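Re: weekly structure request thread

Next one in the queue (206 aa):
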Amino acid sequence: MIVALLLFTGYLSCQAAAVTHGIGRHRKDIPHEDLHIGFAAWMFAEVFYTASASILKVAVGLFLERITQNKMHILIIRIMMAATMLIGTIYLLVALFQCTPISFYWDFSENAKGHCISPMVLVVISYIASVLNGAADFFFGILPIFIVKDLNMRRNTKIVVAAILGFAAIGSLSTLVRLPYVKQLGTYKGGKNKHLTCTKRERSYS
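Done, posted below.
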């Protein structure tokens, strides 16, 4: 949980730096000297977010694994943790190395040379990651109900404990809400809407 907190703090710091330097505004409204800082911060925000989300689910899974005695629950928890780490690692590597060299992502100088993968790759992986994360959040949210139902405690206490442990399910709501907007990643760099890119980068896409 401490590692997840540190990674999420890094994500928030990068996101704050990105917004401060123009991310979220139209290209024409961003000073040229802010472009490289804003885009670099935004890319590393993606990396920190993916890492923190993956580690957080592993932390929750390890916690639930400690308090359940059901072998089937333990097996499912381990499968969810492994799947989360696998797709998280893949997404992190794609986000980090989507441009070659890495600095081409934020280098808007006219003499910059490099290329980037198709943005649709990120769209596909984002859909997969969103579905998996939503499923993991939902599973970790309802599993405590089955864990505490057989414990030796009063019914009211069971309800409170299950509700507290089930807060993880709230995360699945945000995952579902943002699903319709994932497709907009495909319009960034090389897509139809290029208001955040320059001519040099449009030509360099592969």
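The helical segments are 2-20, 32-67, 71-96, 119-148, 155-165, 169-178, 199-204. The first helix runs from residue 2 to 20.
Next request, please.
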